[in-house]
Design brief:
With 89 residues, the chain is an all-alpha fold. The protein has one domain. It is built from three helices and no strands. The model has no long low-confidence stretch (mean pLDDT 80). This is Sugar ABC transporter permease. It is a multi-pass membrane protein. It is found in: Membrane.
Length: 89
Amino acid sequence: MLANKPFPPEGLRAKSQARAAARLHGLSDRAIAWLFILPTILLLLAINIFPLIWALRLSFTNFKSNMPSVPARFVGIDNYTDIPCCLTE
């Protein structure tokens, strides 16, 4: 009974040969497109996200840009609690 059936089945062999041929031809067009686009996306994220995180970090300190030699000290949310009193004056 097993002698009559080919091992592996012909359909499976054809599929594996097609996959092997696809691997030999290289990357697909979609993969190549992503390889070209990905560095640009990463650069844009770095240019936009890094300054945002840096500004948020500095907002929790007493950093003064006109006195860069003075070390920044962590003040927590004191900068944000001063905002309502400054708006009413």
